[in-house]
Structure formats: C-alpha cells, structure tokens
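The following block was generated as part of the benchmark described in Methods. Ligand: norvaline.
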Amino acid sequence: LMSISDLTAAEFTKLVLNASAHKAAVKAALGAGEAPPLTVQGALAGRTVAMMFSKRSTRTRVSTEAAVAMLGGHPMFLGKDDIQLGVNESLYDTSVVISSMTSCMVARVGPHSDVANLAAHSSVPVINALSDDFHPLQTIADFQTIHEAFTSARAGASSLGLEGLKVAWVGDSNNVLFDLATACVKMGVDISVASPTGYGIPDVMKRVILAAGTGITRPGKLMETTVPEEAVKDADVLVTDTWVSMGQEAEAQKRLQSFAGFQITNELAARGGAKPGWKFMHCLPRHAEEVSDEVFYGPKSLVFGEAENRLWAAVSALEGFVVNKGKIL
Ligand code: CP
Ligand code: NVA
C-alpha cells in the first residue's frame, strides 16, 4: 500500500468499512469484559511486522504497534538509528533481508522513492507509513471519521454514501492532502483546496489525484484557490495540517509568513460560508498557527476520534494486506 491510488474505489470502501466493523466488534467485546473477536485475535499469530521509521511518529507508531499486537503478531520497531535504512546499506539489500525474516514492512520515509524501492524488492507486503508524497493510513482513518460523522446511519453495507459532501482543505498542499484528495475524487466527495501562491498542488500530483476519477460515475471535483474563504464556502468538513512538514524545518520561518491568514477559525468558517454543521479535522500533530484553539478543542472538532481511528485503519490495512495478502475482502 503505497498510496490511495493503489486501491480501487471498492477496495478503499471495504478498508474503511472493515476498520469500522473491527472498531465496533472489539469495543463491544472489551466493554463486555470479553476477548476481542476471533477475526482479529490471532490473525497475525507467529508473524512479525517490521516498522521502519526514519522520522518521528506518535499516532502511526502507536496505532501500528497496537494493531499488530491486537492481531496477535509481533511489531518490531526499527528507528532511524537502529537499522541501516538507506544509510550504509542500499534499500535493495535492506528490503531483501528484512522481508526474508518478517511478514510485512511498514515504513516511514522521506522521499517517496524510498518506500517504493523497499516495496519493489520486498517479498512481503509493504505499507507506506508516510512519505513526503502520501499518507494512505491517515486517509483510511479520515474517511472512517467522515463516514461516522456524516453517513454511517444511512449508508448501505457496501458503500460509504458520501457523494456530494464537500471537504475544504485550507493550508499546505502536502502528503496528507494528496491521499485525502485522491480518496475524495474516488468517493465522489468534492474537495476545495486553498493554499498560498507557490504552495499549491504540483501538476504531477494533480494528475495523480484526478486519475482517481477514471471509471467513477460521479467523481469528486477538485477545486483550487489561494483564497481560504472561497474554499470553505458550503463545506461540510474543514481540514488542515501543519504548515511545516517533517523535513521542511529549514523553511519554517518563510512558511509561517507565507501562510499568514490561512489559520482555520470560527470567523473564517462564518465569513466564507461553511455549512452550519461543519466539522473540523486534522491528522495531528497540530500547531497553533494552522487552527485556533477554539476550533481545535471545540464542539465541531473530530480530531481525537480521527486519531483513534488510526488504530482501526491499521487493523484493517494489516488484515487486508498481510492476513488476506492484498485481497481486500
Ligand atoms: N498523523 C500522523 O501520522 O501522526 P504521527 O506523525 O504522530 O504518526
Ligand atoms: N504533513 C505532515 C504530516 C505528519 C503526520 C508531515 O509530513 O510532517
């Protein structure tokens, strides 16, 4: 799983619905003082998942380790000082060796080509745990969160029922956005992106996002602007992320200046005309400049449920790609 583009609309839908089903079943069992259901328990028994992280992580690390443990496997965390991930050893050698001893590699890298190279030479499934270009596990959790907030009551068992919803992304065009936008196009969700001039979606990425609409009856529309108010007009969900992603620290000062006026606030939502029931999402970690405390900790915020859903997204992805070997059932 390198990016959401790897998935058909049906596969993506199933991963999201499976995440929700596992959440409900495991929580019900634990709440009743019982063991997690057998579909989860033991599915990865005797298997090791290598977690190769060259960048910091709270949610991706904890959710993946917890998910592997929940499925009965052994998560092996390998930080950037633990192994020779592209340092002192080629990615080819690393991939061949680690995949010969484990059942899956979950990798967080800088350049997307690093995780793609690992996948190209691996004999086991590789899951992208965030690269400079994509963050598919986040997108699965985000759609689970949107589905819970907007449609889970009326959706049929095999569809998310989100067509026509509008997401407004206000902030940097980054890895989290690229997979989120791809999923929006695939799921018929319109997405409007407001970024300052010079920080919009690169053309190559736009082609990736729009290609997600191929063969979809009602693909989501992608709109772009440099005016935050235009993006939030009639939006159901307002989303942002940090203005300074990992690896961009040297540009921090310049970025903070360029993004002035792009903070998500209640005033921006009102001025721009977001829908009255709008919700706020953020993949976290959050910094105060991109969203006000009032929104982030307020009643419209879904952020902590969204973070928890990372666990269920990880369970679903491991089940789909490792237990079921890429057959998303
Ligand atoms: N959202 C997310 O991926 O968070 P971490 O960087 O803490 O894993
Ligand atoms: N865009 C952020 C996401 C972190 C989860 C980054 O790449 O640092």
